[in-house]
Specification:
Length: 197
């Protein structure tokens, strides 16, 4: 306080923040945090979509390798697969054949093909990773299609359901790829065209 000619003057300058400044700062902080949270969600979705595409390429290459090991049955691998094959009576896994077979198991080429397709379907549907009774590994609602021509040309198509609706992943593809899986805006597609001689 200052005293001038008998009058007392008060100094109105105070130090600190006003309530309005604090509220504006909080609003800016909240908007920033919402943006960071949304960015985190977008990154997780993108990561999952990428992981699903990686799995699709793995499963396509897996069945091609199985077909290479059983060339005499090549044409019989053709078809559409969505996880409905029954379990074959014989387990004809390649690991069982190392060292002349395990337990006297000898499989014909037809039995090997049946086991290959069954095991492949189970893998892409996530049977190798479960939570309770539910398969949680593999692709989300997969459908796989294999086309084999007489000259050994093989086309393997993997389709699955993506997280969000953007566009049909097979809409601009050829007729065989389009016919694999159910057409909708969440369908994703991956295909490999190769030759097995």
């Amino acid at each position: 306080m200052a005293n001038e000619g008998g009058l007392t003057l008060m100094n109105n300058k105070t130090k600190g923040f006003s309530l309005i400044e604090v509220l504006v700062s909080l609003v800016i902080l909240v908007i920033g945090l919402i943006g960071i949270f949304n960015l985190h969600l977008v990154a997780k979705r993108g990561s999952f979509e990428s992981f699903q595409q990686t799995l699709a390429s793995y499963y396509a290459i897996d069945i091609i390798n199985r077909m290479k090991l059983n060339r005499s049955q090549l044409a019989s691998y053709a078809g559409t697969y969505a996880g409905t094959l029954p379990e074959p009576s014989k387990s004809c896994d390649v690991a069982l054949m190392v060292g002349g077979g395990s337990g006297g198991i000898i499989c014909s080429n037809v039995e090997t093909r049946a086991w290959d397709l069954y095991g492949w379907e189970q893998s892409m549907n996530g049977a190798g990773e479960t939570k309770g009774t539910r398969s949680i590994g593999g692709l989300d609602t997969p459908t796989a299609c294999i086309q084999v021509s007489g000259s050994g040309d093989v086309l393997v198509v993997m389709t699955w359901r993506g997280i969000r609706a953007v566009s049909d992943g097979a809409s601009n593809a050829d007729a065989f790829v389009k016919s694999c899986g159910t057409a909708n805006k969440r369908r994703r597609a991956y295909s490999i065209n190769t030759v097995i001689i």
